[in-house]
Design a protein that fits this description.
Blueprint lengths: L1 E2 L2 E2 L14 E6 L4 H12 L3 E8 L10 E5 L18 E4 L5 H4 L2 H21 L4 E5 L16 H17 L5 E5 L4 E2 L6 H9 L3 E2 H12 L11 E3 L1 H9 L4
Helix pairs in contact: 1-6, 3-4, 6-7
């Protein structure tokens, strides 16, 4: 079926294969979703190296963890040689307009940094780019002006997806969760909403992203796969903890 100009196929789970010695780059490792991805990767015997690109050193130490510290994500290019040899990039960068301080800063974090990351990953020969987007993301949405954030948000998330899709990776996975439950430290209004409405815990989202990445390598360039909230839940439930 076609939604927002993208072709969606009926979701069928990729084969989940344990081969070992997998290596990942994680962007946004100090955020709610990225932190869950990081912890689950470090706890798994399947993954032997996890490279976290961060703006400040993390206190956490682990034999599998390498931290690449950058002044800001606008200088990702300085780390490009350290991306070579990885199997997947987990792009968990994310913010709100309030946290970013302006529409322009929000766009820079969500879209421009994602564009830079996708280009570096492509140059490094990484075959799989996995990205956290949002429900209803649509880069073709009409009337998305900066002063009306709902439409601007939807369009920005769509452009964030296109940052990866446009690089023609052998495999792109796009995760479009609905309302996220970030647990402790929830953004103020989201904390209220998660008590009132069904939400997806970031640990579940992280688990689905990792299961998706633990599949046989693409034999040729695949069409991007878009995971809805229901697909994320189905994927996460496909393997018992």
């Amino acid at each position: 079926r076609r939604v927002h100009g993208e072709i969606f196929r009926q979701m069928s789970l990729r084969s989940h294969v344990k081969v070992g010695n997998r290596k990942a780059v994680v962007l946004g490792a100090t955020g709610a979703t990225g932190a869950q991805v990081l912890q689950q990767l470090l706890a798994s015997d399947e993954w032997t190296k996890v490279t976290a690109v961060v703006r400040r050193p993390m206190a956490q130490q682990h034999t599998k963890l390498e931290q690449l510290v950058v002044a800001d994500f606008g200088s990702l290019e300085t780390t490009k040689d350290r991306w070579v040899g990885h199997d997947v990039v987990f792009n968990c960068l994310g913010t709100t307009r309030g946290q970013a301080g302006s529409a322009d800063e929000f766009y820079k974090i969500e879209v421009e940094y994602s564009q830079s990351a996708a280009k570096i990953a492509k140059q490094a020969g990484i075959p799989h780019f996995s990205i956290v987007s949002a429900q209803s993301a649509n880069h073709n949405v009409w009337g998305a002006v900066k002063w009306f954030h709902p439409l601007f948000y939807i369009k920005s998330m769509g452009e964030k997806e296109q940052a990866a899709i446009s690089q023609d990776f052998p495999r792109v996975s796009v995760f479009r969760p609905g309302l996220l439950n970030r647990g402790i430290g929830d953004r103020a209004m989201e904390g209220v909403y998660t008590k009132l409405f069904p939400s997806l815990h970031v640990a579940t989202l992280a688990k689905a992203m990792i299961i998706d990445a633990e599949s046989p390598p693409a034999q040729a360039q695949e069409a991007p796969v878009f995971y809805s909230n229901a697909d994320i839940l189905k994927t996460a439930a496909s393997e018992k903890s």
